[in-house]
């Protein structure tokens, strides 16, 4: 996770990153739209989980809950920062 966070000083994400990690990278850099575009059409529970987080961050609880359900997760009670960190930790392990 620390290696991933170190790349946040770069101008672009590492090309080797998965789409979900690129999405989290762009989110951390303040580009919600780019982050969302990367996971918007991806299949699977991993993309749905990141998609849910992004809609939670956007403030769209209904849409976030829809994507948490698709990810087989519940909306967490933690802060957005804590959720971002847990997502990064999960996908970088």
Please explain how this structure is put together.
The protein is built from six helices and no strands. With 93 residues, it is mainly α. Helix 2 (19-28) packs parallel to helix 4, helix 3 runs antiparallel to helix 4 (45-58) and helix 4 (45-58) runs antiparallel to helix 6.
How is the topology of this model organized?
Elements: H1 2-6, H2 19-28, H3 32-39, H4 45-58, H5 61-70, H6 80-92
Helix pairs in contact: 2-3, 2-4, 3-4, 4-5, 4-6
Unreliable runs: none
Count of helical stretches: 6
- Written as H for each helix and E for each strand, in order along the chain, the element string is HHHHHH
Task: Provide the structure class.
Answer: mainly alpha
If you compute it from the alpha carbons, what radius of gyration comes out, rounded to the nearest whole angstrom?
Answer: 12 Å
* Major pleated sheet: none
Write down how many β-strands occur, each being a DSSP E stretch of 2 or more residues: 0
Percent of residues in helices comes to 55-70%
Mean pLDDT: 95
Concise structural overview:
Helices cover 65% and strands 0% of the residues. The protein is mainly α and 93 residues long.
